[in-house]
Design goal:
Length: 275
């Protein structure tokens, strides 16, 4: 897939010009679209506007010093203004972004979060995509812009963020787990490798990461599983490779974290394993 950028239907522009235009454009909202091939990496950068990055197709990984966030097809990530972030394309992706002035509306989220794109927001993004940029749109277009602003703070947060502990030892262990996730590794194993008692380790990890190790590992398993599932790998293979004893156990974890089975969540075809 070629690397192209389209801003509101205008001719493609390069990435440097795109960022400059976003910063200089007038109006509460700027809307753009980008296509990138798998494994392309967008270098660390920041915007003075907040960014709602919607994965229309494919999977992207957004990285900040606060953690990593997986953005699968149909979902979005909110990136507050001023947050330095890089983006890795896990698969070929088509992404739509809405850039929002910080003062445009109150109650915008103040930290990165992956959010579900509701049917209403999906329809609004479809409607706004082909519109030419106007600083102060009026009539129906103006109402669409205003409703997008009001809906962003209402989008439901999804458990697709992966915070990293500040402690260097714990962070190294987390990165090692991401490289080779295994559900059979116990808390006692982690505590021993960290040179701590189980009680001290569990307390320290939750203080550092903001979530318990068990929740963190489930989120890490989703990070490992989603790109493979999106690329068409069978649920059975993914589940066993991640160390789950059965497809049912993996599916239970997936449902608990994302609210539906892998097949339903990603609209995968029916398989004999029933997942």
């Amino acid at each position: 897939m070629p690397s192209t950028v389209v801003m509101n239907g205008d001719r493609p522009v390069n990435d440097e010009k795109r960022r400059s235009w976003i910063e200089e454009a007038e109006g509460d909202l700027v809307v753009g679209e980008i296509e990138q091939a798998a494994h392309v990496q967008v270098e660390a950068h920041r915007h003075s506007r907040g960014q709602l990055l919607h994965a229309r197709s494919g999977v992207a990984l957004v990285k900040t010093v606060f953690g990593h966030w997986m953005v699968p097809t149909g979902q979005a990530i909110w990136i507050p203004p001023g947050i330095v972030h890089a983006v890795d394309m896990v698969t070929d992706v088509r992404m739509q972004s809405v850039y929002v002035l910080p003062e445009a509306i109150s109650d915008l989220p103040d930290r990165p979060r992956v959010v579900g794109v509701t049917p209403l927001m999906h329809s609004l993004l479809e409607e706004v995509a082909p519109l030419p940029h106007v600083a102060q749109p009026t009539g129906r277009n103006g109402l669409i812009y205003k409703l997008i602003l009001h809906e962003i703070p209402r989008l439901p947060e999804l458990p697709l963020g992966l915070p990293f502990p500040a402690d260097a030892r714990l962070a190294r262990m987390c990165r090692a787990f991401l490289d080779a996730p295994a559900s059979r590794v116990t808390i006692d194993d982690w505590a021993r490798d960290a040179g701590m008692s189980r009680r001290t380790f569990t307390r320290r990890f939750k203080q550092e990461a903001g979530v318990s190790l068990s929740v963190w590992r489930q989120q890490a398993s989703l990070f490992a599983a989603l790109p493979r599932l999106v690329s068409g790998e069978p649920v059975t293979s993914v589940a066993y490779d991640l160390g789950y004893d059965s497809v049912a156990a993996f599916t239970t974890m997936f449902k608990r974290m994302l609210g539906s089975s892998p097949r339903n969540y990603l609209k995968l075809p029916e398989r004999e394993d029933g997942s």
